[in-house]
Amino acid sequence: MENLTDIAVFVEVVKADSFTTAAKELDLSRSVVSKYITRLEQRLGVRLLNRTTRRLSLTEAGRQFFQQSQSALMQLENAEGEILAMQAEPRGLLRISVPSSFGIMHLAPLMPQFQKIYPDLKLDLSINDKIVDIVDEGIDIAIRIGELPDSTLIAKRIAQCRYVVCASPTYFEQHDKPIIPEDLTQHNCLLFQFWNTPNQWQFLSKDNQFIDVKVRGEVVSNNSLALRKIMLNNGGISMAPTFLVGDDIKNGHLISVLSDCHIKPLSIYAVYPHRQYLTAKVRAFLEFLSSQINIDKPYWDEFL
């Protein structure tokens, strides 16, 4: 920063055409201003100013250095102004990472409204079920579902993620509805690859006993939207998040079963790198999500 101070003082001296006037503008003594200029010349190894008792003049090197320094300082001032403006009003590029099903079904439909409120923001919506390193990838905010590993990232809970076991009415016309969790062993269960144990489903009975059921299935997929389509087309039974199947159950396209057995809910989080100096664009997005999604009972749980 010492170099930058010396350059800024040099530019002010040239603009004022006087050490004394520049010193007053900078609220420094004339001797300190002179010291800055001398230090700059010594570092560069050239004379920048010809000094006489009556006037100052730039050397050839000084003229070239002044032009480039003045331009660079203006760019720094503009950059600082842009950053301050970004903090005052959401603007620039907002990069969001979100799991496929939640992003397509719930986040994407909200984006036109968000853009209408914040027209100076551009959005980069990355939809991917793989967990990305948001710092390395330059992601401003990520939506995560489930238990979060310990990290330096900041997480804000935005909603509860409940689960139900369900299948289509036609599927249940062809297969008996499961009455207890163990009945699932007789069904074609659709398995989600990104679960830690895709073929082991856990329930909590009325008397608070955990029930682990090892299920089998002919289909495993890394995309929950694909599993939903298979369910809707009578291809099997699945344990699915309500944000994925809530509307289908409400409309009668899917039927939930085993309602007496509790399935441990997860949480949906908005994750971002830093709490300090939170950018206006990230703050605006968090506030928007809170205004659209009820944290305790989101709109996709209306059927419950």
Overview of this structure, please?
The protein is an alpha/beta fold. The chain has 3 domains: 2-88, Arc Repressor Mutant, subunit A, CATH 1.10.10; 92-161 and 266-301, D-Maltodextrin-Binding Protein, domain 2, CATH 3.40.190.10; 163-257, 3-Layer(aba) Sandwich (D-Maltodextrin-Binding Protein, domain 2). The protein is 39% helix and 22% strand. The protein contains 10 helices and 14 strands. It has helices at 2-16, 19-26, 30-44, 60-88, 100-107, 111-117, 169-174, 224-232, 242-250, 280-292, and strands at 49-51, 56-58, 92-98, 121-127, 141-145, 154-161, 163-167, 190-192, 200-204, 210-214, 219-221, 238-241, 255-257, 266-272. It has a 5-stranded mixed beta sheet with strand order 4-3-5-14-6. Strand 1 (49-51) and strand 2 (56-58) form a beta hairpin. Helix 1 crosses helix 3. The longest helix has 29 residues, at 60-88. The radius of gyration is 31 Å and the shape is rod-shaped. The chain starts with a helix and ends in a 12-residue tail after the last helix. The model has no long low-confidence stretch (mean pLDDT 88).
